[in-house]
Design goal:
Number of domains: 3
CATH topology of the largest domain: D-amino Acid Aminotransferase, Chain A, domain 1
Strand content: 25-35%
CATH architecture of the largest domain: 2-Layer Sandwich
Shape: globular
Largest sheet: 5 strands, antiparallel
Order of helices and strands: EHEEHEHHEHEEHEEEEEEHEEH
CATH superfamily of the largest domain: ATP-grasp fold, B domain
CATH class of the largest domain: Alpha Beta
Length: about 290
């Protein structure tokens, strides 16, 4: 019997959906003949006793999830997410650079420094990318610090705010759509496909509108009903990052397909796996039965 550690924190357990997904993961592991144990940040000392580690808390090189991932890697324990994937996906400059190097299609993208803030240069950026422009602070997650700007004045205002947190920001072409594709990829192979239906009041899959957080609706899509180009591009993007578990967000219009980002710690509690009942079996097999 192998031991699977499921690394969580209080925020992971903040909703009934998240708790249900975690219990399901544990139950699947036990049905497969393994034991599963929830590990909290205070339990990092237990990691060397595990045969694999599945991190189900927000990953970032500056928090304890990265420490847990590094501990597992140092002990030769299979881990999702691995340290390299956390480092790459937590820094959008690094992530988009990887995608560019591997020829993955992304929206028109520029990396902006403080030297790009004079108004003549900002006008040039609008000429290169188009209007509106999406500005992203590189460490953003859950659609935070992602803003749409329509003119040089708005660009300057948002950029100055983001530069308080980072030496670089991302300026990206705005691609309008009513939904994003999410392609789940594990070890370079398709795991699931779904649509994230963008709320009417925003352009993001999660946002604060009039003081209330609004979330996208999730629609699980059978693989044979999803555009093959979306699936192949999602797999290409994931392979550019590594061989772990990734959620690739894409937009597709008139046959074009562009990758918006790659997430190293993709959500599984929103119904992403509705048409894919063996998602957890695949993840656990990848970790414990390779």
């Amino acid at each position: 019997m192998s031991r699977l550690g499921i690394f969580v924190d209080r925020k992971t357990l903040s909703s009934a959906e998240q708790l249900h997904a975690l219990i399901r993961c544990r139950d699947v592991a036990e049905e497969m003949g393994h034991s599963a144990e929830f590990l909290f940040p205070v339990d990092t000392r237990k990691i060397p006793a595990m045969d694999a580690l599945f991190i189900r808390a927000r990953t970032d090189p500056l928090n304890v999830t990265y420490v847990a991932s590094r501990m597992a890697e140092a002990d030769g324990i299979p881990v999702i997410d691995d340290p390299d994937s956390i480092r790459i996906c937590s820094d959008k400059v690094n992530m988009y650079s990887r995608l560019m190097q591997h020829g993955v299609p992304i929206p028109r993208t520029l990396f902006i420094s403080r030297h790009d803030l004079p108004l003549p240069r900002i006008r040039e950026i609008f000429g290169e990318i188009g209007s509106p422009i999406i500005l992203k602070e590189p460490s953003t997650s859950f659609s935070l610090r992602v803003e749409k700007v329509n003119n040089p004045g708005e660009f300057l205002q948002v950029a100055r705010r983001f530069f308080r947190m980072s030496d670089w920001i991302v300026a990206q072409q705005f691609v309008e759509s009513r939904y994003d594709w999410r392609v789940g990829v594990l070890d370079g192979e398709l795991l699931y496909v779904c649509k994230y239906m963008i709320p009417d009041a925003t352009f993001k899959i999660q946002d604060s509108v009039n003081g209330h957080v609004v979330y996208c609706a999730v629609e699980s899509i059978p693989a044979d009903q999803a555009p093959s180009r979306v699936i192949l591009t999602g797999i290409q993007a994931a392979r550019a990052i590594g061989s772990g578990l990734y959620g690739v967000d894409l937009k597709s219009d008139n046959g074009d397909c562009t990758v918006i980002e790659v997430n190293d710690n993709p959500s599984l509690e929103g119904g992403e796996d509705g048409c894919y009942p063996l998602v957890y079996q695949a993840i656990i097999s990848h970790l414990l039965e390779r």
